[in-house]
Design brief:
The chain folds into two domains: 142 residues, Trna Endonuclease, Chain: A, domain 1, CATH 3.40.1350; 78 residues, no CATH class. The longest helix has 29 residues. The chain is built from 14 helices and seven strands.
Length: 292
Amino acid sequence: MKTDILFYGLLQAYPELVFELTGMPVEPGYDLMAVEVKERNFRFDGVLMPPPTALPTAPIWFVEVQFQKRAGFYRDFFTKVALYLHQFAVERPGRLLAILPSRAVDVVVPTFYEPQVRAGWLHRVYLDEWTAAASLGGELLKLAVTPEIEMPERVKVLREQAQGTFEEARVLEWLEALLVYRYAKRSREEIAQMFALGDLRETRVYQEALSEGIERGKQEGVQLGKQEGIQLGRQAGEAQLVLRLLTRRLGSLTIEQQQQIASLSLSQLEDLGEALLDWQGSMELTHWLNGL
């Protein structure tokens, strides 16, 4: 799971996180979308657009997630914003939000942009220092940098907070995605055991995949079957995540498209997850699938 795909999906599910991270009053109705600027194919991790009914003073939020130190990060960030303003003739205020794991990853803002920083254009959030009380979405975001020793207790508290609420299913889905991101070398079965997430091991999709793998492995050995089942379970989980992102971005998918996506390999699902951030309509998905 790549960082940009993971955080784009989380911010799209919880767009109010942009206001929560920056300490601004939450303005309802905003929608997060991926936007590509044609010059040099610059692409934002996310652009939070105000609703059509918003006042002219409601800002557009440009969001970048940066988990690796890169000297030109802010130069590229401000350049993308300037190109966006030119290309789309924006007539409302704008704000920039950089989400970083810690100050160690941050770099110096070029001198040219210091006046904009002093004017409050740029908001920088270091997740390891973000200790304020947060919503369920905010607490999920914090898991990306939570010290490993604290992870079991944080996960337990989040599950308890979500239990019985309308967000319970969504929180469990993002818990799984974030834990897979943090523990990329472990299987979903191992992660579920580590954090007592029985829900993940008992889901119909995972159990069917595991059973199918074990059945396939009977002729070659039970252990091989178990490994195949775990691999199939991971593939099924990734497919579910990509399908959710596609549905939120493009609307309903056909049964044929859903079936084709569910049969993709893990590497193909990762490629699809990255490609969909650029798409504006369902025809692009059709072309992508036809090109396989």
